[in-house]
Amino acid sequence: MTLKSILPLAALALPLAVPAQNNPKVEEAPVNVSFDFEPNPANPWRELGVFDTWEESPFRTGKLKGNVAVVDNPTLDELNPLTGLPVNPSKAVLALQRSRFGSNTFGARIVLQQPVALTPKPLYIHAWVRSPKAGRVLIAGLGKRKERTKQVDDVVQVAEITTSPLEVNQWREIVVPAAANKGVELYSLVIVPDCESPHDLKEDFVAYIDNVSINTVSAPTLIRGYYPINFDKAQPHARKDRYIEAVQFTIDKQKFNYVLPQPRMLYNEAGVSHRIFAKAGDVVTPKVQYKGSWMHTFFYVDLDQDGQFKPEEVVSYSYKDGKNSAGKTFANGGMSFQSPEFTLPQNMKPGVYRMRLKVDYDDLDPMGHKTLPENGGGFVDFLLNIHDGAAIVNDHNLNGAVKTLDGKELTSLQVPYGQDFTIKMHPADGFEHNGFVLKHGVNLNGEATVKDNVQWETITIPRSIFNADGTYTIPGKWMDGNVLIEGRFVQEGRYKPEPVPAWFSRFNVTSIDGKYFAPNTQWYSLQLGEQGYVIYGTSESHIALEATAVDAKNQQHLWCFVGNNEAGFKLYNRYFGTGYVLAAPTTMSGVTGGSSFVRLVPANQVPRGYTAVWRFMDSKDLKAEGADVVYMYEDKFPANRANNRDNRLAFWTGGADKGSTFVIRPVEMTEPAVTSIVLPNSATSSNEVFDLSGRRAESTSQGVLVMNGKKVVK
Question: What is the pLDDT of residue 678?
Fold first, then answer.
């Protein structure tokens, strides 16, 4: 039936339909069952109801009746920005009242006209789902074995839940596999739009379902939004043995690096912190780090900025029909993975473009061949800023001024694009600075996002990360077009210190001045793997992984960090002091780096071929409260991840798992901070002053300073 309104759903009071045992039998399973909820007697469903796998559910015991009905489609005004047409043009859809009295598996039940036979080779169940709540979706198939004529046909035979939640009030096509031993038949489908605990659900809500099908195709049919792909962008990467690890672009001697995050996804957006800067006519040299073989790379640029990639916008590819984009031929598809360099068109106007890397096999479709997921392919989209070589800086201030180091006003000041830029705060009499707000990008008076491409953003730079002399160096990545600086000035004495922002550093970093650590240095413990092996300082050629309990009084167990998220971090051990730093060779030896050891080396004589700069990536392999749970890898070598190899701290270049996961915790010190580790008998003299970066400052300096081991505001 078709109803004009879904509310109030309680008035519908549709009963839970339980199919009888006389469903027609078929000898061969249909593999292309599809239906919507339009008035159509040929639709292959015959009853609608609700279902809950919880046996004590009031919807199973008969105490409550669920509400589900076919209604007029209330979402016809939701348009696809690429086509201007409704995302879902159906006249009618299935509406479900998600009851707070049902379990997390409460959903709409659709009874099929004929059962569908399953085999070990999977079929795929598709369903469009839209919900006002961002929950995960579960699709289950109810049925029985064909030869068991007396068995009820509402036994759960298959059930799959999505790994990512729905976007609120957005249609999304869910695709799940359905496979079972031969002889199993599905009699009905259950679609659960909110497979989450109902304990915090204060009221019922309505979710919509449409366009259900069962077939042999794993790719979704719903293509919506800008820069689409032929798959669900939210789906996890399918292969553990074949995946993209990192991407690098070299443009005019500048390198842009992006390491893909964990957990691995089929589709990735590098985001605003990994913009690529280039000028029209520049030569771009791409390099992709990939685990696997017999795949090819394709690069596209949305040259007309219309929000989608077209095959003719390919700018470089490694293999198509036996040759690459430079015309070089190859005997087979296993011989060419890296795409050749390419030149950006001379007629590109300054602005924000989008560039895509696709890893696929011998196919130019920028949305991906249907076999891309199972082959271990993937997508990475980048923001590409085309510029003319200059950034324009302006300021807007009250009660003070922001100037260059040499005192220039920031009024339409032209500076080099993409290069670090240092400013200095000049409070008016009776005021002090509290940092500034930075607005940067293109078309600052326009929309912040155009066709999903971020044009500009605002960032607050707190005083806590300034130098003591009132200077701050704006990273080059933010000097990307128009730059507006709004100084924050407050009356003297009203400044309230703010914490160091997470975008600056994931750790509470310290600094080093000669042989001293900064006063009040934060110390951390490092433990590796599920066993929690303690990483400790030693003069041996390797760090043995033995102890599993951190001793806060043992200085060898304590580490500090110097650096930030942008530059990377160096690790120092409290016992060995500022003279030694944690380092490792960048060229791996042994099987997958098993005999390349991480160890302490002289800080001023890091061996050739070693690096002492480390980067960190979130890990979900372990959980720990109050700690950073991360992978640790060498700067510029994302595959070189530290790992437990035969109870020694070495590397595993074959991937990352629990054995590569570090749990890093701040350690509360019960004894006075020691700022000089190299010379244990020396101490910071009482008249020494430091800024928050750990550098010595003049006693007349203003701002947040460290004196006698304590922060003071002058």
Answer: 37
